[in-house]
Write the structure tokens for this entry.
Amino acid sequence: MNEPARFDRLARLYRWIEYFSFGSYLQQCRMLRIVEIVASPRALVYGDGDFRFLAELVRRAPEMQVAAVDASGEMLRQAAKRLSSDAHVRLEQADALACEVGAFPEAPFDLVVSHFFLDCFDEAELAVLAAHVNAAAGEGAVWVVSDFSIPRLPVARQVGWLVVSGLYLAFRLLTGLRTRRLPDHGRVMRDSGWRLEDRRALLLGLLVSERWRRSYRMNDGEQHMNMPSNAEARLPPSHRI
């Protein structure tokens, strides 16, 4: 497994780095599904940049029980400044790949959120993360994913490849991130028992917001019903994630 990237040095500047790189688009992507998820009573949040999304989520759903996991202590200190004193949020500094979230007192979770987080891992690491999530998520739980993607249109595809490659190089230099390409997180999630329900794109497909649902578990074993969802079926095979 790769060593976790070091984001402490970016914590105070993260919002401005994001703004000057993509304007408000990343935050728009994070917020696309907030109306869909505010009724969830228990949520597990991985990463979340400077935690503007988390602050807004608990503002709209003040009774929600939330566990937020981040490897960066400084990012979590910035998060604490954004949260009201009565928010039911526990901030956990931990490596997501080593953190047994199934033991958290908030589990089982009805909602899992990972904004621009899965792209920090390779597919083997994502399988480990998904196993941790499966140990903590209830049946029928929803997993909201925001991430980068390579667009389908030819010109946008070339531009998207350059943007994503540039981001990986920059974060490798600034944080020590070792991942160099976007993982096929969709394959890992399907193999782990999650089904894509909806996918929306921004910036011609450079940013995507997805809603996954934990599939129906057959009997008491680990077999899952993983027939392609309508959202996946609409994509040509070469563009299914």
